Amino acid sequence: xxxxxxxxxxxxGLTSSNVCEQIAKLTRSKCGHGGTLDPxxxxxxxxxxxxxxxxxxxLSNFPKTYYFEAxxxxxxxxxxxxxxxxxxxxxxxxxxQLEDVIESFIGxxxxxxxxxxxxxxxxxxLYKLARSNIKxxxxxxRIKIQYIKLLSYALPCxxxxxxxxxxxxxxxxxxxxxxxxxxxxxxxxxxxxxIGEIDxxxxxxxxxxxNVETIQNKLIPLxxxxxxxxxxxxNESQYLRFVNxxxxxxxxxxxxxxxxxxxxFIAIAQKxxxxxxxxxxxxxx
Length: 285
Known about the structure:
- This protein is α+β, with helices and mostly antiparallel strands.
- The protein folds into 3 domains: 4-59 and 200-222, Pseudouridine synthase; 64-195, Pseudouridine synthase; 229-282, Archaeosine Trna-guanine Transglycosylase, Chain: A, domain 4.
- The protein has 8 helices and 18 strands.
- Strand 8 and strand 9 (124-125) form a beta hairpin.
- The chain is elongated, with a radius of gyration of 22 Å.
- The model has no long low-confidence stretch (mean pLDDT 94).
């Protein structure tokens, strides 16, 4: 049984679930991913294998950085180049106007979720409802844009880099940039280049992972990938209380910490107060 984290550079055309299915088939282990990428999108996808699935939420909540290209003057039903054109509008703005508009998105704002998305409404995926022409109230999400930069200006297509909170839809961001410029738009390219401090240059294409041995060589141990958390070493009496679900007396400033026993990583703890921690996720006994 393999346990760890795999950093994948997703190719276009694959769903995030496709990637996990391929890895699960090779490893015969449970797999999951942290942060869905659209089929059109490429770039960094964090895949948990075995016990690695349990820690995905500790990694996927970091800010995400994307490169994207927006085509102005046409809007599609999917908000990307795979969809059908539903609106057309003249795009005649200047570089300065575009820079001013993207700057207005920095900070906290509300974003309308794309109808073609994996977001659930009443238990159903929105994209399934869209394909069946079922009308629903589309959810609005609170998002945060840390920064957005114009990398190249041209019409009809310009390119950008953005760092944003988890759950931000880049297709919707491009749509809303277009609306603020009194036109419409869709994305032609989206690439996730960072999650927190993890860079896409550290990742591998799933097509290059042909067997279990190759995957094992690329697998990052859980303790390593969570090294940004402080480490707590338990003595025997603390260990016996902790693994049975009880809080223990340990000083810790951070919300979460890695728990070791006899030099081995066994769990993630959560702070109760300044002098006590409790089990958050038991990984190994």
